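SEQUENCE WITH STRUCTURE:
===
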Amino acid sequence: MTRTPAAALACCLFLALSRPAHCVPPAPVAQAIASEHIASPAVSFVVLDVESGEIAASFNPGTPRSPASTIKVVTTFAALDSLGPAYTWHTQALVQGTVVDGLLEGDLIL
């Protein structure tokens, strides 16, 4: 079975999140968190060794978080891996209604 990099990344993230949390982040990370006045419970991360899949560092990895913009990195990586960098999206614009004096009286559907 051949695995794509996106599938391998997803597997690594799953494995990392299913392991117990490390209690203390590395000193430079802890200092950065403190210097920015961020509460420790508000921080979570997992750093994996790419070769072994082992956790190199983690802090609160099992704490549920809203992915915000960081999930875009994973989805972009998966899209690039699956579709390639030359892929272009095709979006259709449809109207449901009538145009009167340049104004659409109805719905614009993208």
Summary: Residues 5-17 form the longest helix (13 residues).
